[in-house]
Amino acid sequence: MSLHAYLIFSTLLFGVGLYGLLQRRSLVAMLIALELMLAAVSVNVVALTTLTGRDAAIGQVVALILVGVAASETAIALSLFVAIHRASHSIDVESLSELKG
Amino acid sequence: MSGSVLAALTAQVAPLAASAVILTALRGRPRAAAATAIAALTLSLAASAALVWRIAIPNVAWVAQAVWLPVQGSPGLAFGVMADPLATSMAFLVAFITLAVMVYSLGYMHGDPGFARYFGFLALFGWAMLGLVLASNLLQLLVFWELVGLASFLLIGFWFERPAPAAAARKAFLMTRVGDVGFLLGVLLLIRALGVATIPDVLAAATGPAPGFKVPLVAFLLLMGVVGKSAQGPLFTWLPDAMEGPTPVSALLHSATMVAAGVFLVARLHPLFAAAPAVMQGLLLLALVTALASATMAMVANDIKRVLAYSSISQLSYMLMGLAAGSVAAGFFHLTTHAGFKALLFLASGIFIHHAHSNEMKEIAEHEPLSQKAGVIGLVTGSLALAGVIPFAGYFSKEMILGAMGEHVGGVVLALAYLGAGLTAYYTFRMVFLTLRGGAAQRGHADPHGAAVVEHEYVFGARAMAGVVLVLAALTLVLGYLGGFFATRLSPGAEHEGPFAIGAGALVALGLVAAGIALAWVEFGAKGASRVGFAERNPAIKDFLANNWYVDRLYNATVVRWALALSRAAKWNDHTVLDGASDGVAMGTVWSGRILSMVQNGYVQAYVAAAVSVVAALGIWLMRTGGRP
What we know:
The complex is a heterodimer. Chain A is an all-alpha fold. In chain A, 77% of the residues lie in helices and 0% in strands. Chain A is built from three helices and no strands. By secondary structure, chain B is mostly helical. Chain B has a two-stranded antiparallel sheet with strand order 1-2. In chain B, helix 3 packs antiparallel against helix 21, helix 8 runs antiparallel to helix 11 (259-268) and helix 15 runs antiparallel to helix 18 (393-408). Classes of the chains: A mainly alpha, B mainly alpha.
């Protein structure tokens, strides 16, 4: 497979994630969409390092770190969602709009 | 010499330290404050006595000066002591009068809520004046000159809660400031020409062949300061208003400090002024006009302190005339004797004012003035000295001035100066008779309040007041014999005939004085006298004289009005233009903030969309241009 195929795939993945992030109103769904976008970035990094003749290890290390970041971010986000749900009995972003100018 | 330097420093530092301690730590402890101030001034007096002993009596002179932060090719700041007979005699005088006023104030100011502050200011005043007297260079002198102005501002406005003293203090400060502009310019010119303008250097340069500065110009500018400080010519009107201060302050202000500073400066820099004969002529004429004008104002005043204030202006004019006629000794001699008897007169009048609770001579006369023995003695001896009756101090010094004028000026000026001496006697004894004899008619039904006031008088304070007045009264008989002492030291070369050399001039003067006193007796003193002076008969003339020759009205109509208009314009500019601009900026910020805050709608997804759009736009732009603008 060529580099282009990977890039097109990751762009689609990113686009799907972005669409989900902007479209879904549940916080959990938005988080899942965000994970898709992160995965697209990881794919990009790995593909660009391995298929352009560089040291493949760099890309893999970065991808692993990204997985770790995504995991911790998810943990924090989910606990926040639980706290938000306890406070306002809702995780709908449209209803969480008190902080406005 | 080092002992003398130490003495000079002690004389200056003691009052400064006292003032600082009182104003910071002893505000709430009046007794401790008074004790501190009096102790400091006693120390100052002892130090200046040592200076007189070591400098003035053996007639030596030196300058000890240290330059602080000396920089090549620039003036630098020099601080030092110039000790010569003039400075040390003056320092002794200042310390003595200040101390006398402090002791007197123990009684006069007793129970005043600002008692401690008052003594702090008095010590400050003493320090400023001693610093001015002993300063070794003109920049240092300028600093103390302004400090003297500050101290008198604080003391004239001591009762600042009342509007009149506050206004008088402001007037005194601003009016002397007008003259001080010239003084500052003169000093700056000297500093530019001579670097550190040490006084002997200035005098040597002024009298030398190539002074390096325009002597008449500098002399004129410095004299502007003198005119303001010594209340001469056009700038005299602050002094009568300054009577709003406490009476002991007036005594201090009129005798050895503030107004004396101007005369002292002329004596200090006399060779410089003598090198500009035209300026000296002008000073002579200005002083002559001032002397006569203020004498006429004194003839109609009803407030005892105002009479004394006008007489101070008049006597200061005499000092300046003596100096302008070329005799330092005559001018300074009159300064010394005047300091003694004018302090005496004010303090004696203070006893009456304290007793009658009024400055009006007629009211004082209704409160049994003769019951105040020390006051009567002080007022009468002081008046005899002021009028110039032999053998009181004023006679000898005024005689010396008139003698010096006779030698160097002559003519109409001299005749007018003699006339002024006669007028002095007239208004002085008008004051005495109005104050002391008015009650004669009503003595049968004397005011019962007078006695009531005496009963709860503060005994120690009353004794302090009386004691000071009696000491000063005795001094008026002594100070007159210092003429020879000053003549040999301050005007070497000029011959001095001894105190009792009665020539034609002295006889004329004594005759005029006698005539003045006799006229005052006929109009005010004798039984059945009309008690209306010849100057008071015509209401138009009386108003003219009583209102300072309408000089104040002229200033109000011109300078003050223009200045007020200017300040109103400035206020409008400040409130409308400047405030408007800053208000406009503030309003713009607020409104643009309100509009922009609509972007913050609280929807996270809108923010994400915006962020992504911006990043995408940036990315496209970077790809298009390659990062180069």
